[in-house]
Amino acid sequence: MKIEVLVVPDCPHEKAAVELLRRALDDVGLTDVTWDTQVVADQDEAERIGFTGSPTFLIDGRDLFAEPGRAAGLTCRMYATPQGPAGLPTLDQLRQALAAVCQTGNAPAGPGSGREPTNEQRRHWQDTHAAHPGMYGAEPSTPAVHAAGVFRAAGADRVLELGAGHGRDALYFARKGFTVRATDFSSTGLGQLREAARAQGLADRITTAVHDVRTPLPLPDDSVDAVFAHMLLCMALSTREIRTLVAEVRRVLRPGGVFVYTVRHTGDAHYGTGTAHGDDIYEHGGFAVHFFPRQLVDSLADGWRLDEVHGFEEGELPRRLWRITQSLS
Ligand SMILES: C[S@@+](CC[C@H](N)C(=O)[O-])C[C@H]1O[C@@H](n2cnc3c(N)ncnc32)[C@H](O)[C@@H]1O
């Protein structure tokens, strides 16, 4: 793996950029990896190599934060961060971009570089969203309809949705007047969501971010009022990853914030069947699911108020799920 930092002469962000890169590489386990710094001397060179601003981070020639259509030029670069435009990405954003490259198999080491279930799952979900656009239909899920009422009662405005897929629920929350930040590790699903948001005149209420929930949430502390996740925590995540994710949800929620999530549980017909990956994860038809025991639900609510655990069924199998509502004081 070849990493390069491209800068203009006397770039004011060069020093901070390489410090940030060192920290991000260390954080994703690429402690031995170094980089070359290249100075882009003039406009001709910028255009020749497609340089769109200083600093730029390249891995094997690919821009980690590529913005298709952006003109090449000898200029400073602005990064869209949760705190607004900035001269550098945040540490979280750089870590996530590095981890995403690792997951595509282009890097030799670090989290996400192996053939563990979640990395296979990312490819599988990308392919599935591409092959079946809008696979869950245009109507919201029943947990989303319920959650909208809970969120309204809690005085929520800013909703974060995790594992939003093609966005049937994010679109519903936006139609109900919430401001929605929708994330998923499938850029294909989120692309379908953005297209639908534009078509429905909801683009100003919904933002999207490609994000793997195994990495820190790309949001500041106390920055959302409510979090929603339908069938995301029961994806191919280890119990440890689930606990870390719930701690992250807690970090980004403001005091009094609400978290509504759903998971398939150990009463589901597929529990204990198919390909076993350990840690209550079983795979059927290429989809790996972590089936939740009740004890896991209870322990994830430690330090929260557990408002409700509601059993329901969905789909043809039917899938057996719990809808959990927990809130912060
Ligand atoms: C069962 S689908 C549910 C989609 C959506 N919540 C809905 O109900 O319409 C699970 C979604 O989680 C996403 N996903 C799975 N593992 C993920 C991970 N580690 N990080 C982020 N998204 C993930 C998949 O891409 C998929 O869109």
The separation of the N and C termini measures: 47 Å
- In CATH, the homologous superfamily of the largest domain goes by the name Vaccinia Virus protein VP39
Q: Mean of the pLDDT scores?
A: 91
Order of helices and strands: EHEHEEEEHHHEHEHEEHEEEEHEE
Tell how many strands the DSSP assignment holds.
16
At CATH level 3, the topology of the largest domain is Rossmann fold
Bound molecules: S-adenosylmethionine
In percent, how helical is the residue content? 25-40%
- Please tally the helical runs, counting DSSP H or I stretches of 4 or more residues: 9
Shape: globular
Q: From the alpha-carbon coordinates, what is the Rg to the nearest angstrom?
A: 21 Å
The structure class reads alpha/beta
> Oligomeric status of the shown chains?
single chain
Spatial arrangement of strands, main beta sheet:
9-8-7-10-11-16-15
Domain module tally: 2
The CATH class of the largest domain: Alpha Beta
Proportion of residues in β-strands: 25-35%
> Tell me about the biggest sheet?
7 strands, mixed
Point out poorly predicted stretches.
105-115
Name of the CATH architecture of the largest domain: 3-Layer(aba) Sandwich
